């Protein structure tokens, strides 16, 4: 085990140093070619997969067998030799005319990438990437929309390994220039006690409120999830404290698990970090990352508002109170012990949005965080902690590098075969130029792919195949790509997969499927939000300030009504009648009115803001009027002794 840690740690340290030099953070004297930079990075990270994962794909706990040392050595040697030949590669055009020895090395490297992908990401995505990577070779034998002119194996391998649109394409380029820094920052935040700080701050602020522990889960998971970018990590980090606290005050195990799963899922959609996919999105559609942050802000706030309102309504209906003040930390003490987390986060946001330094911001924030942490007696690292941090960073970067190289093979195969443009055309033709049919196809495909692939992989596949069809139909480009990201996240809270809910259920000791169904109901707004903002981009702050304000205000009002319809309780009004038949009618009317309010008006919906507003208000007023009549009738019946 010591050999594994030492080998992986050394490679991870070299990878971090190469990133700093390659991106010019340490010195501007050395600026490698982009292909050279990417090859060396792959050479340093890919061997870590073979050292840390056994042939079965499990995390290695024993020594490394000789064949894995050999694979790790070859995984380092081949891309490193390509980096040394980067100039020659460009001049001689190895992408289409590589020398014989390089061609044979490309075959071996192709196989190594697929094997690393199988070990780190699982068999399902390995099988998908394997089949698609060979697609140009057998495409002529396929029927219909899949048919394309075939390419020989040597040309396909050259395009994959030496070209700039496959393993060295957008996924790997975004990873190497933007994603890495934020991943390192997220790990540093966890290892310096950031998770405990956000959780304690949430308990101090919200722990005594009605249904307090559930509101704590929303606040802490939203903050921590935004930094870590991982749903499962978020559940396991904050859920171990929030879920038992929720159960203690009266929430059922499945409800507590559902709350944590929804809160952790939303964290990945919450600026400023949002996980790896958002950075790849910015690179793919060629917009500043700050633009993605601004666009994602309003939908993520609306999502958490809906979750908060539903929890408050549930607690009110069931008389669930908060925790005693004496058991909770004080806000003053929490901020005194962890003020630097707020300071570092502020620096990160300032550099992202004001200075527009997306690539450099996380490195400065990480350096400041670790520096201040070493001054703090409570969280100061020793040599063992430092080694654990380096190992965690190295393993995370290696696994993601293998994943993105594998997804790059899919993109490269579709590009080489010329199917990127034709698939978009065929999809538009299949939908009959109907935008709503295209959106439904996109939502369903994103959900299905999200069950079998990581969100990043599913997004990239759809960004190449489906996004052009949607944008060519007149939809906003940023809105379309956020739409696919949101629907890719849905699988984390939707049975039968619902990995986030299953992870929370293991902590809550509840039935995983029931927990998934509870999470699906609580997070139901996530199924509507993407349609709202893709039909009118004003909801992602792409429009005049007046229109953005109007759409946001009506959307918030709609979410209040939707939460009231789902939970049978409206804040400031009270509970909906318990009469079985009347209650269903009232709650459905609230849901319909809420959707009408939240749905933005515009050309694509065919209805104006004012029409939707009037219709929504009328439905809600009718529901509340019917509810008041039923309550008066019930009181009269009780008074008369009926």
From TrEMBL:
TM region positions: 7-31, 37-55, 67-84, 121-138, 174-206, 218-243, 263-285, 292-311, 338-354, 396-416, 436-464, 484-507, 519-542, 548-570, 582-599, 611-629
Q: Which residues form a coiled coil?
A: none
Q: Where in the cell is it found?
A: Cell inner membrane
Q: Which Pfam families match?
A: DctM
Instruction: Report the InterPro entries cross-referenced here.
Output: DctM, TRAP_DctM-Dct_fused
Keyword Ribonucleoprotein appears in the UniProt entry: no
- State the annotated membrane topology for this chain: Multi-pass membrane protein
The TRAP C4-dicarboxylate transport system permease DctM subunit domain is annotated at 109-541
Keyword Transport on entry? yes
Q: Which protein, by its recorded name, is this?
A: TRAP transporter fused permease subunit
